[in-house]
Design a protein that fits this description.
- The chain has about 240 residues and is mainly beta.
- The strands form two sheets. It has a 15-stranded parallel β-sheet that branches. Strands 2-4-6-9-12-15-18-21-24-25 form a ten-stranded mixed β-sheet.
- It has one domain: Hexapeptide repeat proteins (UDP N-Acetylglucosamine Acyltransferase, domain 1), CATH 2.160.10.
- It is about 15% helix and about 35% strand.
- The protein is built from three helices and 25 strands.
Length: about 240
């Protein structure tokens, strides 16, 4: 009953103009919200919530069932994204998530191993549109990772067990990529469109592609330039 009352209250708060909604989030739900934060018509349901300065959250986003939610300063979240479940969702500083993404953790999965249901997005990282990320176990992006294009999937579980997925800093992943449980990609790599990552790639500056994926070649100067290019024009030099 208490849970339902809370959900109804959060839904009603989501309909309020941003300045009033922020006051309600602070006073009624105990959220920590920084300065100059803009929140659209979105539901934010977390046991512990901290939102940094200058964050922008667009319309029709849903954060639900999250134990701990933290959003770093200057992060921008577009529209129609779903963030569901898990012990923690941590979005770093100057991140960007566009639209129609589903970032989900299965509650109480029937697996034989211990799980670490956390989604960690490093500073300056970016997620494009219509991607699906399962973080029943940990999914971690390093700083300035780009999950670009559309329709990629990352998952961490099968019917028996889970394994985390780790993407190294400044790695670029193209459209329609599949990353299986236990997948790891080193820093400063490029993963080509349609690749299926089913193992660990520990060498930086590599072009990775294919089904199943393999190392194709070392990045040339143009490829290295892509991994070094800032994800946002306003990205500070210390990220």
């Amino acid at each position: 009953m208490i849970r339902k009352i809370r959900q109804i209250s959060l839904a009603l708060t989501a309909l309020l103009p941003s300045p009033i909604a922020k006051v309600c989030f602070r006073l009624v739900f105990g959220y920590k919200i920084g300065k100059r934060v803009r929140i659209g018509f979105s539901i934010i349901d977390g046991q512990e919530v901290e939102i940094g300065d200058d964050v922008s959250i667009g319309h029709f986003n849903v954060f639900t069932g999250v134990d701990k939610l933290s959003i770093g300063e200057h992060t921008r979240i577009g529209v129609l994204n779903i963030f569901r479940g898990g012990d923690e969702i941590r979005l770093g500083r100057y991140c960007e998530i566009l639209r129609l993404n589903e970032i989900n953790s299965i509650p109480e999965p029937e697996v034989v191993n211990e799980i670490d249901p956390r989604f960690i997005m490093g500073d300056g990282s970016m997620i494009g549109a219509s991607h699906k990320i399962d973080f029943t176990d940990r999914v971690e992006f390093g700083n300035r990772v780009i999950l670009g294009g559309r329709n990629s999937s990352i998952w961490t579980h099968n019917r028996q067990k889970t394994q985390p997925v780790i993407i190294g800093e400044r790695t670029y992943l193209g459209s329609e990529i599949r990353v299986a449980p236990g997948g790891e990609i080193a820093s400063k790599c490029i993963v080509g469109i349609g690749a299926v990552i089913a193992g660990k790639f520990d060498r930086p500056f590599m072009l990775i592609g294919g089904v199943p994926a393999k190392e194709i070649k070392e990045l040339d100067d143009e490829g290295k330039f892509l991994t070094e290019k800032k994800t946002r024009n306003d990205l500070p030099d210390d990220i």
